[in-house]
């Protein structure tokens, strides 16, 4: 099992593992104000769609306990700017809005409570969201586990691991379960430029768990796929929409196209909280663009000419046609059927991997 938690609530404060420092240093940031949590989301101290959803819920809890108000109606009024601040931190990942909306709905349904009782309810809901995420990830892992045959080699990208979630991870959940069951397999991890989440975080956490890991540069993936070394690829998602298109870390689309070209199955691990059925197509997903320094500097060292123009998209969209299946806590589904995920027919549409 993973040894580190990405985020925890302790004695009325939020502690966030500063993932910018991994793997060299393990340090938690103590947050006593919601603005510090919001900043940690923006600067990638905490990242990964489920984890920043949990962080957003905890930020609402922090804000609520710091507000001195006489009644629950006033608490809701004072929290509205907090909701918006959190939603604005990172626009592509739908989990932030999902978590904020869940907290907001909880408050609106319990305005009859004394304000101290409501604050306790908010804190408990935050902890419930985190625990649910752990259970959801394990279910995703169970549905994806049949993919892991003895001696297989799996390719993954960026970090959809335990440090991107409450625990287990999404794409890495079946890896941890396969390890627990004694299945021998190898994971090839793409470094994931420009912030190197694959090299710094995924390789680190899988090695901590005793999993066989090989690190490659992003542009090595195509050569390995062509040689037939990879049995399948599995990645996470920051937002999956109604037609089965998937937004994930920049470079995911490239990898999916390479998998399709080389007839290698490409799977996406997607908790329901990351599925946005309000959007019909991936073309409508807002794509975050980050600072040019992430590309022109590496750990503070300049690696590009001064004032060079930079395009630094944080995410790209992989069209549904390149995805073999989307694996959720309800099971695996064809991308074209993801729009039925919340309907009664979903059980009949579930794929057997």
Automatic annotation (TrEMBL):
GO biological-process terms attached to the record: L-methionine salvage from methylthioadenosine
Catalytic residues of the enzyme: 238
Top-level taxonomic group: Bacteria
Chain positions of site Transition state stabilizer: 158
Pathways involved: Amino-acid biosynthesis; L-methionine biosynthesis via salvage pathway; L-methionine from S-methyl-5-thio-alpha-D-ribose 1-phosphate: step 1/6
Catalytic activity: 5-(methylsulfanyl)-alpha-D-ribose 1-phosphate = 5-(methylsulfanyl)-D-ribulose 1-phosphate
Function: Catalyzes the interconversion of methylthioribose-1-phosphate (MTR-1-P) into methylthioribulose-1-phosphate (MTRu-1-P).
Protein name: Methylthioribose-1-phosphate isomerase
Source species of the chain: Thermodesulfovibrio aggregans
Gene it is expressed from: mtnA
């Amino acid at each position: 099992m993973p040894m580190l938690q990405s985020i925890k609530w302790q004695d009325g404060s939020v502690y966030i593992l500063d993932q910018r420092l991994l793997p060299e240093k393990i340090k938690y940031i103590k947050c006593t104000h919601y603005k510090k949590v919001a900043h940690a989301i923006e600067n990638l101290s905490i990242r990964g769609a489920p984890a920043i959803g949990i962080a957003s819920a905890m930020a609402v809890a922090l804000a609520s306990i710091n507000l001195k108000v006489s009644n629950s109606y006033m608490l809701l009024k004072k929290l509205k700017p907090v909701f918006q601040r959190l939603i604005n931190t990172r626009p592509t990942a739908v989990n932030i809005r999902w978590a904020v909306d869940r907290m907001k709905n909880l408050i609106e349904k319990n305005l009859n409570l004394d304000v101290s009782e409501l604050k306790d309810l908010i804190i408990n809901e935050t902890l419930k969201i985190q625990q649910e995420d752990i259970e959801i990830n394990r279910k995703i892992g169970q549905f994806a586990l049949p993919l892991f045959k003895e001696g297989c080699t799996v390719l993954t990208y960026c970090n959809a691991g335990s440090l991107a979630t409450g625990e287990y991870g999404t794409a890495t959940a079946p890896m941890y379960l396969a390890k627990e069951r004694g299945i021998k397999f190898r994971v090839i991890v793409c470094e994931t430029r420009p912030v190197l989440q694959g090299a710094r975080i995924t390789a680190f956490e899988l090695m901590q768990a005793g999993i066989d890991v090989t690190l490659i540069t992003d542009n090595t993936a195509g050569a390995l796929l062509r040689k037939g070394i990879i049995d399948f690829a599995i990645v996470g998602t920051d937002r999956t929409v109604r037609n089965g298109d998937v937004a994930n870390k920049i470079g995911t689309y490239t990898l999916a196209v390479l998998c399709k070209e080389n007839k290698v199955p490409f799977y996406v691990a997607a908790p329901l909280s990351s599925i946005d059925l309000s959007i019909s197509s991936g073309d409508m997903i807002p794509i975050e663009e980050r600072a040019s320094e992430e590309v022109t500097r590496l750990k503070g060292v300049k690696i590009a000419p001064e004032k060079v123009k930079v395009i630094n998209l944080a995410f790209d969209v992989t069209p549904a046609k390149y995805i073999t299946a989307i694996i959720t806590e309800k099971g695996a589904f064809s991308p074209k059927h993801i729009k039925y995920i919340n309907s009664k027919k979903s059980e009949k549409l579930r794929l057997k991997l």
